[in-house]
């Protein structure tokens, strides 16, 4: 079993971003974060992204709106960011309050600045394999982990467990696309005999949002397992009262694998690294 070190690979990506960003001087790649409300996880995620941006020589600005912000007020701000040539990427931190329709909000971001890859045009261009599309950061990180770990993908059967717009669907599109060339199955909570489907996989991407859902009997020997899950489970030995586990029962599954990602320290760091790469690319395109 080989452990795929997401922290180490993310640092490789960030090092490349730092070098390319320096070559753009005096232009500084700029990602604008928009947060609505004070959800603790959102506050933490945005702070981490801002810190990483500073480390690679990028500018990261943040606008925080109250949770009762109107759609008109939020859209006016997004329109201003779209029109500002000094802003190269825009990220709206999800989740949003229920009165704000997420798809409509994501689509308000100009496609050239949609570094989170959630807009309809970004997703459509990704599926059509057209140049200029930004892939959502987490699935882009999954593919980058496979590539930089030397995992052979062409012709192999990848099973993506989960069909979310944030991970499952774009991950399937990326794995299917030319360059990865996987045969892809998407399984989900309504899949009949899901365990039998997952057992066929050469590559498993677990993104179903259930702690330790993928068990040893669901994984064939020699499979590569990428665990996207981030779940809190109670743990009285921790100061916080909980610990983070993935969607895979790591201790039981790992001995069967060719390679596997840990949680934490697997896909998570890659999500932030790919956001920085997308922002850098947006800046390079703006510069021509």
Alpha-beta content class: alpha/beta
State the CATH topology of the largest domain.
Answer: Rossmann fold
Largest sheet: 6 strands, parallel
User: How many angstroms does the end-to-end distance come to?
Assistant: 44 Å
Helix content: 25-40%
Residue windows where pLDDT falls under 50 for at least 5 positions: none
Radius of gyration: 19 Å
Describe the protein's architecture and organization.
- With 288 residues, the chain is α/β, with parallel strands linked by helices.
- The chain folds into two domains: 27-116, 3-Layer(aba) Sandwich (Rossmann fold); 137-269, 3-Layer(aba) Sandwich (Rossmann fold).
- The chain contains ten helices and eleven strands.
- The protein has helices at 6-22, 40-55, 71-83, 102-107, 120-127, 137-148, 168-176, 194-198, 250-253, 267-287, and strands at residues 2-3, 30-36, 59-65, 89-92, 157-161, 183-187, 203-206, 224-227, 231-234, 242-245, 259-260.
- Strand 2 (30-36), helix 2 (40-55) and strand 3 form a beta-alpha-beta unit.
- Helix 1 runs parallel beside helix 10 (267-287), helix 6 (137-148) packs across helix 7 and helix 6 (137-148) packs across helix 10.
